[in-house]
Amino acid sequence: MCSTHRPTLKATLDNLRQPMPLREKLRLIARNFSLRFSKRQACCGHTGQPGC
C-alpha cells in the first residue's frame, strides 16, 4: 500500500513512463483516480501503476 502522503511529480511521471499500451495506461489512470476519489485518500493502493 502507499503511504498517506501524496506522490511526488517524479513518481507520477515514472509511473506513466512504464512500457504498456496507451489504452491500458488510460484505463489504469481512470481506475486509480476513481478509487482515490471514492475512498477520499491520497493513494489508490496500487503503488507503481499509472494514476497512483
Spell out the key features of this protein.
50% helix; 2 helices; mainly alpha
Helical proportion? 40-55%
Q: How many domain modules?
A: 1
Q: Extract low-pLDDT stretches.
A: none
Q: How would a textbook summarize the main sheet?
A: none
Number of helices: 2
Q: Got a strand count? A: 0
Write down the secondary-structure element order.
HH
Mean pLDDT: 77
Radius of gyration: 10 Å
Distance between the termini: 11 Å
Shape: flat
Structural class: mainly alpha
Strand content: under 5%
Please characterize this protein's 3D structure:
The protein is mainly alpha-helical and about 50 residues long. The protein has one domain. It contains two helices and no strands.
Entry summary:
The chain has 2 helices and no strands. It is mostly helical.
List the helices and strands and how they pair.
Layout: H1 9-16, H2 22-39
